[in-house]
Amino acid sequence: MRIFVRLEARAPEHPKVVGISSLAWSWWTKALCYCKRQELDGLVPHAVVALLLPDLHRYEIDGNSVSADDLVDELIEAGLAKHSEAKDVLLHDWIDYQTSAAQLASLRYSRKEAGRKGGIASGKARRKQTTKHLLHDQKASGKSAQSRRQDAADRLEADFNEVWATYPRKTGRLAALKAYKARRREKIPAEDLAIATANYAKLRSGEDPQFTKHGATFFGPSAPWRDYLPGGAGLIEANQSRIADNDHVSEASQAWRAYKRFIADQSVYECCDFPDDRMKFAAYETYGNWREMCECAGRERNEDKAVFIKAWNEFEDADA
Q1: How many domains does the chain have?
Q2: pTM
Q3: Is the Cβ–Cβ distance between 318 and 289 less than 8 Å?
């Protein structure tokens, strides 16, 4: 809010002003502006008196230097100001000609209230207009807001039913539906929930169902379903576990399939003469419980062949 000082256009010709110096006039007008700006009701603090004309030391009157106190004395003598008990300067007749601090505060409050009430009225008018448009749109579409909400709820439950059809544990459907809806309200895509459910169902296939999460837990606020998205912690852990469980089978199987190829046309002892085959013996010993197999390599031919073939056949049966 801009504020103004009232200064009558004929003030320079006023009898009280005619006799003061130009420097006193300058100080007085600056004091008027300062008091209005600071809302001091015409009171100039003593500490501010010299600050209103900071370059006063450059001026002289009748060859004598001039101080701010000299100018105040000049104004007091002309009846334009007076000293307070605290040595501050009081500008004469401030309340008669200028707007007081209390009046400024009241004016600000009135404008604020007017703006607030105008905003409320404007908001009501906009809401009324918006409601009018909505009613028109609803009438044109033939559906009410309640009908559209019901359609959205039906679509959401249909999405859940598709997911629930693949979920590996069918207990607690209502609680699972509630958790699923909560995740969808959090803007979780239906596709992400469907992918996570499919991956989890695949991992839990053939497992003890008592260790399968309830649907309300899987779709719950702690979001365990995220672990079963591509790259999720649950999938990584399951893959690592499966690899660890099957390492010895896969590597040993490769070794023994190689043995089959080697001994198709050779005896057991001829096969054992190859360095690569000795390495396969070491792989077999590492991943199985068939130490007899490696030990038989050092026996005589007539003692070894039956033991070797027996151990091999047992391993083949286990691998199958």
Answers
A1: 4
A2: 0.36
A3: no
